[in-house]
Amino acid sequence: MSQMRTLLHIICIIQSLHVVFSQNENMCAHKETVMTITRSIEVSLEGNIGQVECTGRVTVKQCEGTCVSKAKPSGNSETGMERTCHCCRETGQTSKTVILDECYDGTELIPDFKPTTSITEPSGCSCSQCRN
């Protein structure tokens, strides 16, 4: 019985340490995801100007993760609270060209028509002071 109680005590300590350490870690990083880009493009088809819907799939980077934020009582603050807020966000941006490889005139696929468009993605990520 004594060994079981000791084992349960050790498990509780380990779980408590895990919670404390995980709450004090900044874990903000690039994550790749695939997204579909859709654009409406004005084109001239057989002498008529019209709109076509074009789509393309692209792998992009995004910033994702957790950053340490806290609010604690303070005798030096007007509100009585000292707040520190950090969020996972981009440190810079880069432009990426996306090939829109499927364009439709209504329901009909337009062959050999592959326009491009640009999107912006993060070039780096970090925990930064939150801004409005």
UniProtKB/TrEMBL annotation:
Which InterPro entries has this protein been placed in?
Bursicon_suB (IPR034441), Cystine-knot_cytokine (IPR029034)
The GO biological-process annotations, alphabetized, read as: G protein-coupled receptor signaling pathway
UniProt KW keywords: Signal
- Signal peptide interval: 1-22
- GO CC field: bursicon neuropeptide hormone complex
In Gene Ontology terms, what is one molecular function of this protein?
G protein-coupled receptor binding
Entry-linked PANTHER family: PARTNER OF BURSICON
Q: What is this protein called?
A: CTCK domain-containing protein
Originating organism? Mytilus galloprovincialis
